[in-house]
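User: Okay, second chain of the day. Same drill as before: sequence in, structure tokens out.
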Amino acid sequence: MRVGVFAGSFCPVTKGHVDVIRRSAKLVDKLYVVVGINVQKQYVMSDEDRLALVKKALCGIDNVEVVAYGGMMTDFCQSVSANVMIKAVRNAVDVQSVLDLTDINKRYWNGETVFIACDKQYQAVSSTLVRELLGLGKDISEYVPEGLKDDIVKAIKG
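Assistant: Same drill. Structure tokens below.
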């Protein structure tokens, strides 16, 4: 069985995330989408909101299970017998980051780290962009999954 892991902070989840996750799910039998919890990181959304919104965004993908995890991703990969960790890349900076991550992952886990290039229409879309636009009072509808705009606004602005 091919088991994959796609991890992120998803603060908030974007259409770019959903696109890459849909494409990743086609490559494995089971895909764990992991909402990372890092106590050293300051999120603008609660862990519960991030998890709930990712679950809602991905509910139509049968072989995807969304979970939250607060440790090293290689440990999570081992715990679910994952053979591959999938990362999305939007640009050259992301590629370098994934290459660096691959080297570290090899030290702690025997699986493969691979990347999937974002669809061109989502290359400029990031959680940071969504948060910045929202902070400037702009409409974020074209960047976030269908039906989640109001939930994301509420989770970020309170």
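Strands lie at 3-8, 30-36, 64-69, 84-89, 112-117.

User: Thanks, on to the next one.
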